């Protein structure tokens, strides 16, 4: 028997939660009205025998949610293709579920990334026909390759991780280090982006990597929608989305403020003003200032600056971009201005953050 609502004129808490969740998605989808000429992000996928379903599902579901408005599953802003030498032959996962590839191998240049999802270690020697050659071809063409789960073993076997860092699940870490001592293997991370080669531990970590790729190519609004729709908004891992606070801001109740924050997230690398922000959310500049003060204890301008600096700190810790490149990317007039503002915010310098990362890398090597 259904429980009766004691207050017929009042929405239940569950109803309010559903309304808030749908409103958030509507707000995000309303941020970008660009005509869609081609997908912003295209990923080619190669599956190894006995691959983990979670790694494939996490990647594809993240792209699916970012790709379209609402929950319509149309591949508008993102697209993915599962490939094999003979697409008529299904690939068996470690759980016994089979997946049939979409097509045979296509030109790697058609994709923004080519990802390989490795299988159980006993199956790594059972390479699908043409798979290793295709991965090498992608790397030679300058297309970034991604090793997911034991896909890192496959990339290492092909020499694509020589002298690089690689992200491994802790379960496989020691075996990887013994097999590939020339690769700096690390665990307890979601992923490592080493430029044209990316590695991911697999499992739920694939959602963090997929969300970051979506953020880069489609914008922070699409990434925020992905993690909201996949119900991982309360994860506390140090991902790009938590650093820029895209996750925490989804809990902002006022729809005007929520939209303003999403616009800031979408504009991390282009200049915006508090007045422009007020115009976009249809409030006066004074009203906008009051909203930010009540929720964050900051003015809109200070909030914009703080968010960019936090993103800059994440780039220092996780990317290979120089301090000058990061400063210019975030809209600072010069490197000195960035360093001065960074010191005021964090009581340290960008150089010190980079040095701390280098020491950490050396310890882990």
UniProtKB/TrEMBL annotation:
Where along the chain is composition biased (Basic residues)? 1-10
Chain ranges of the HTH araC/xylS-type domain: 258-356
* Alphabetized GO MF terms: DNA-binding transcription factor activity; sequence-specific DNA binding
Give the domain of life. Bacteria
UniProt cross-references to InterPro entries, sorted A to Z:
Class_I_gatase-like, DJ-1/PfpI, Homeodomain-like_sf, HTH_AraC, HTH_AraC-typ_CS, INH-QAR, Tscrpt_reg_AraC-type_HTH
The answer on whether this UniProt entry bears the keyword Transferase reads no
List every stretch annotated Disordered.
Answer: 1-23
Task: Return the protein name.
Answer: Helix-turn-helix domain-containing protein
Recorded source organism is: Nguyenibacter vanlangensis
